[in-house]
Amino acid sequence: MIVLGIESSCDETAAAIVNDKREILGDCVLTQLEHKIYGGVVPEIAARAHLDHIEDILEETFKQAGLRPQDVDAVAAAAGPGLIGGVVVGVMAAKALCLALNKPFIAVNHLEGHALAARLTSEVNYPYLLLLVSGGHCQILIVKGSGDFERLGTTIDDAAGEAFDKVAKMLNLGYPGGPMIEKMAELGDENRFVLPRPLQNSGDCNLSFSGLKTAVRKIIESYAADGSIEHTILSKQDTADVCASFQKAVTESLLYKLKKAIFIFRSKYPQGRDLVVAGGVAANTYLRGRLQQLAETEGLIFSAPPIRLCTDNGVMIAWAGMERALKGMYNDLDFKPRPRWPLDENAPKAAGAGGVKA
Ligand code: KG4
Ligand code: ZN
């Protein structure tokens, strides 16, 4: 079985081809640089850029794979959640191919793409505990199969990646902020600034990053004579220390709630063995290291996709599509893209589970 996957839900135009032997045959990602000057993704510019590049990306992916379009058995596209203008471009391209080639179409939830990516590259078995940390989402979930998720916790405000991006913006480190903060943090003292660990007493697995972001802002402002963030002058070392302290605070907030989630996961699914991290923030080496330690302490096996498969890519959509195709889970060609699409919408709502943000 061979599946083509298309990703266009944010600022990456990407396509990939995988087979059921877990081989990546073609993999092409174009990160739109058009947004850098705006310090964030501009939806209209993203949609136009997807339209401009999708054909070339598909052509290049087939070239890498040495295959013709008619050689694939199914076409998957990220059909949400995400920026609707971009999602429509990828979904329409996939549907057009399916119509022309008479192949089945698979509408993949972008978050399911992130969630299952580690199963392509590591031995990860259902059910597993997942920390999903991206630019738009931050959730702790139990993954039981394609379309079968149980959410234990979520952020009540910013996503983890969003917090990295906002703090990077305050420090003039550019967009996207995560990789720059990680790089600066390597030079910094993670114990220099004391930052809050939000929602520690909430008793659930929910997370919050907006107070942390405000605390960082106050530190930066304290370095300006007039107390305004625009006039602050931080030395390279101060900046590195803020980055390291912030990265540690985000990581430890995540670990604290994960420990609670591990307890719930264990009591519900004693056969579960795996702890997985996914999404753009999973590219962070410091976070990966701390998660590895946590898994060892808890007697779980830690897995993460290779770093290049953490941020948005076509491989994760192709693989999530493959898992669905192997079960015959196809969609009609009139499937409507979904800008909002919670992963756990089919799960019965458990008492005490996070239910704040879709
Ligand atoms: O999954 P992704 O590519 O797009 C979404 O679906 O949102 O995630 C992008 C997010 C951005 O917020 C970016 O700053 C963050 O992932 N990110 C990182 C790192 N690389 C990307 N955050 C922390 N450390 C990194 N190395
Ligand atoms: Zn993503």
Which characteristics define this entry?
Nucleotidyltransferase, domain 5; alpha/beta; 5-stranded mixed beta sheet; 9 helices; single chain; binds zinc ion; 41% helix; 2 domains; binds 5'-O-[(R)-(carboxyoxy)(hydroxy)phosphoryl]adenosine
Detail the topology: elements first, then pairings.
Layout (H helix, E strand, L loop, with lengths): L1 E6 L4 E8 L4 E8 L11 H23 L8 E5 L5 H18 L3 E4 L1 H12 L6 E6 L4 E8 L2 E7 L5 H11 L6 H9 L24 H12 L14 H33 L5 E5 L6 H14 L2 E3 L10 H13 L32
Parallel strand pairs: 1-4, 4-5, 6-9, 9-10
Antiparallel strand pairs: 1-2, 2-3, 6-7, 7-8
Helix pairs in contact: 1-2, 3-9, 4-5, 4-6, 5-7, 6-7, 7-8
The structure holds 5'-O-[(R)-(carboxyoxy)(hydroxy)phosphoryl]adenosine and zinc ion (ZN).
The site of zinc ion has 6 residues, from α3.
